[in-house]
Inverse folding.
């Protein structure tokens, strides 16, 4: 193998695939990045068997070949390379990788490329095309609501529900639920289906995409999703299991609708959270309201107590309710626009946040029972 | 106590004094910030008994008084305050602190201000005046060379050596030593003296100073240094003990002088360090040289080996030498200017870095014996 490459392009590729390298690899070769040159293309691959990422870089190749280098070491080295062209070469599949620039030379240990599990080539399956910007938006608005508790894998996932009205993205950790009806450029699905993908992994993929109108082509088998965009190919494992019937928990109507500034509510909740954190903190903020003001109260023996007031418009009767402040805070951080509805139906019925300018999104919070 | 204040000014004061709050306070009241209002001035004080910081803010006071609030909680609260004026009040020394803005109100628990150890008023002692910019420069170039091992307190300190040729700042951890001859605006010292101040604490103080020509007035007793600048007063404890005779380790002459680019050497050492870190890493880089090139070599069974070449000018004969790469790296990061001398006198004699444009500074590294 022999090729010449510049630091910025190589770094872009390493930054992309390194997200798939596990910090605790199941087999030693998975601590590495697979590199292969052929026909003026360098292909970088990394996988932790949950996600696999492949990235192609145009390079000047003099000789085809493959090798595997330790991902952490290679990443650190690429960052420190000079800006001048750098030559990479191996004298065979089992030889060390030589990296040459100026008069200097790095010799890196390698692993056997034949042991590396490359990404499968998927040809048959359902197909869907999304815009990269929509994929990023869906991830941002939904993934954070998934659980991080690996004991119940469905809840660590984001549901993709192919529905007649569009592609629904849903995530819940049973305390709150986010749902966005996403836009699809094109789809070709044999029959209506649901699939669950790991929320954290989707967020990692979103970070690899440019925020533009680039199209993402996806092929979905029964166990995997292959995503392709420009230089990037990503394989995601589909989480086994049946997602809970999420539609049943979304209230169909509201008794009280509060219209409130996202910024004012967010700042008030941030301040109120101060007296609900800490050793003796309950994480609870209590909401009460009248015609034109929402009152938020919190207290802890340790810190003191906090009373916040925010101007609102209210339709319906006041419904006192209490929430874990984190579930409010996290949603308010991602919801855009000036104003949001908070729809309530009872003290023990989930409240629903809906952005005024975006009917595609809702965020539901299960209330906390207080004395 | 009652005063009105805006968030940005209060935040500046809290940011300043919070550096003196210990994460493990010896007595409960030291987890707090002391606040006192008098004559349109709010005085904030915090101390961990090693360092004490006082910061004065002009405010609109309606009623004098004092209180102590938990530093962590108060800091978090101030950050989240709205930009509109905020009113603070207590109904007495032992009452809660009320914070009011818009229609909202925070009630914070307080501690007894009479229990708070305020900074002593120092009037008698040696005096010295430095420019803030020089204080910051001295700290940046010297403090990092101090040890972090509290078992030998002198080596965690920076020596201030009042010498006929100026104020020498010296720090060493016994593996390397940094020395800068600092500029003094004015001094009034009864007799030549040395004092040791904690290196990490000096760096904390430097962060509080603006990078300008502001003058710092210091009064030094036998046990403490009081530093005053504008709104800020800082008390530092002098570390007990006799500093080692540092002059004896600085080579008076060199046998070989290498002139080298700071940037090129720094980048080459950064890359070479890759093959000296890790589980089996020695932290060692080996230097050899000929008339116009310096060669740097490192290797580890885990990573591989690295060979770097940097252009140099050399006077004298080649002297192969090995250093812990960290001691080179840390100095090269703070040394300014284009070029630096590396002065060598033998394979087992300390090497000395001296910036070409700054005769006031030197940095010495003890070499590593290799087979």
């Amino acid at each position: 193998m022999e090729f010449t490459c510049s630091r910025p392009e190589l770094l872009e590729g390493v930054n992309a695939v390194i997200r798939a390298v596990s910090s605790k690899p199941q087999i030693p070769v998975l601590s590495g990045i697979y590199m292969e040159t052929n026909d003026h293309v360098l292909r970088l691959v990394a996988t932790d068997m949950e996600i696999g990422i492949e990235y192609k870089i145009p390079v000047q190749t003099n000789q085809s070949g493959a090798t595997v280098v330790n991902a952490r070491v290679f990443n650190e080295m690429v960052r420190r390379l000079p800006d001048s062209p750098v030559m990479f070469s191996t004298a065979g599949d089992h030889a060390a990788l030589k990296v040459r620039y100026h008069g200097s030379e790095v010799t890196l240990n390698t692993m056997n490329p034949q042991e590396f599990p490359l990404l499968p080539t998927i040809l048959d399956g359902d197909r869907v095309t999304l815009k990269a910007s929509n994929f990023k938006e869906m991830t941002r608005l939904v993934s954070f609501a998934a659980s991080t508790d690996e004991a119940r894998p469905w809840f660590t996932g984001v549901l993709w529900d192919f529905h007649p009205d569009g592609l629904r993205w849903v995530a819940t950790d049973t305390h709150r639920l986010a749902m966005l009806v996403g836009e699809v450029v094109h789809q070709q699905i044999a029959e209506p289906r649901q699939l669950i993908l790991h929320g954290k992994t989707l967020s990692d993929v979103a970070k690899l995409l440019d925020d533009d109108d680039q199209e993402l082509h996806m092929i979905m088998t029964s166990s995997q999703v292959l995503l392709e965009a420009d230089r990037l190919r990503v394989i995601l494992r589909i989480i086994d299991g049946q997602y809970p019937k999420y539609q049943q928990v979304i209230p169909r109507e509201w008794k009280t609708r509060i219209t409130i500034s996202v910024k004012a509510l967010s700042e008030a909740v941030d301040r109120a959270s101060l007296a609900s954190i800490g050793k003796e903190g309950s994480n609870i903020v209590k909401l009460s309201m009248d015609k034109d003001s929402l009152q938020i109260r919190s207290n802890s023996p340790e810190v003191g107590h906090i009373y916040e007031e925010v101007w609102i418009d209210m339709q319906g009767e006041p419904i006192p309710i209490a929430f874990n402040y984190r579930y409010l805070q996290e949603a308010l951080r991602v919801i855009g626009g000036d104003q949001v509805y908070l729809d309530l139906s009872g003290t023990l019925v989930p409240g629903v946040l809906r952005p005024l300018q975006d009917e595609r999104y809702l965020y539901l919070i299960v209330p906390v029972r207080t004395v």
In short: Chain A has a mean pLDDT of 93. The CA atoms of residues 34 and 68 of chain A lie 4 Å apart.
